[in-house]
Hints:
The complex is a heterodimer of chains A (301) and B (143). Chain A has 301 residues and is mainly beta. Chain A has one helix spanning 2-16, and strands spanning 29-37, 40-48, 69-70, 79-82, 86-88, 91-93, 96-103, 109-114, 131-136, 139-140, 148-150, 158-165, 168-176, 194-200, 217-224, 227-233, 242-249, 252-259, 262-266, 271-277, 280-287, 293-299. Helices cover 5% and strands 46% of the residues of chain A. Helix content of chain B is 34%, strand content 0%. The interface between A and B is large, with 36 and 39 residues.
Amino acid sequence: MKTAFRGLTTLAALVSLAPSARAQVRASETASVSQTVDGTTLTVDYSRPRIRGRAQVYGSEKVIPWGEVWTPGANWATTLEVNKDVTVNGHLLPKGKYSVWMKVEQREWTVVFDTTVRLFHTQHPIADSALVHFPVTPENVKGPEVLTWSFPDVSTTGTTLRMAWADRAVSLAIGVQPSTPITLAADLAPRYTGEYSFQWTSAGPDAPAGAGPPPPSVWKVTYAQDMLLADWGPPPFPEWSHLVLIKIGDDWFYPGAMLDGELFDVANDLVIEFSLAGGKATGFEVRGENDEIIGRGTRTK
Amino acid sequence: MKLSTLVSRRHFVAACCGIVATGVSSRPLWGTVRPGGGDPGHPTPRPGITAANVLPDADLVDYPGSKSAFEAIRAIPQVVDGIRCNCGCAELPGFYSLLSCYEGAGMARICEICQGQGRLTARLHKAGKTLDEIRTAIDARYG
Lengths: 301, 143
């Protein structure tokens, strides 16, 4: 029986691995979806089964019986690869590649990530593999004809990884590690807080020939919620009126733009370099990626 | 407010600073190594290295914005040779160090990261920083 099963699995695998040099129609076409969040890239590779007129998918003895440990895909197990550690619904998933499984029950499902990646769907997770598993409650949905993995939303700190097929969907909350912490130690903040007059060194490219730089603006640098913040008035664009200064070295910062209290963009091609005298910043330079000075701030208060 | 309406930092830099008149970066198309990624290892300066192969001013006529960077690194080839370039050109055949960006095809003529690393290296060297301190600063800024 075991030999017969192995033979069947091998046959299925061979069918699945038929030469790709010629075009072929597949019952479950392969797909890949990827999302990067703050330098962390998640990639799902899977095959996409279709409902094909079947009245019931989940709970059907012919498709996915209740209690089945199922790979949300078809043929070879669906895989998830992450290039950095992430959290999935609050559970640590270390950097690596995993086969993805879901134990399908009538109410609560269990999501399983198995370090054994290359498994055919009939093989199921190997018991002694290092597994990450946790319960989830699937949503009842009017889902797609074709099984679909997607990232329906993205924030600066994570994304949602969602599997939907037929009348069920599972959404997984992915958290990523910030590439650059935006907090600053409280004892460092007094060096920089205060008010600065800021001046660009040149006019923008849209300015008339011979035009000088725009009038000076004001940076009010404060410390709140463990962050060094700068209110810029008037800013070059409304969205740049609130900055967080992200420390990357001694007295060096990247400017990050805040929107509704949330970091939404880090300009890592600019650097703000403060000059200190007597332990207090006297001003700063803003340098571009080519290290040339594009603006200067001078302390006024 | 939709994020699609927000200005990108590239647009921000271009519009405010006039660095890139077209608003398009001169960053090499094969990508860059940014914070959090890439191998931060730096090369060991080659004994006796000189700036003899650094492109002369005659080859910079069409790239006036790069001239000051070439001038800066010509004075300190032994330091620049101990710096890894983070624009992605370190993967190219024949590349050894940041100094290589200023030789041969002269990528530094068009690459703002090559220029920036060269200028920063020269600036920190002038300020009395050691090679290790310069490497740390380069990694923080471009690594």
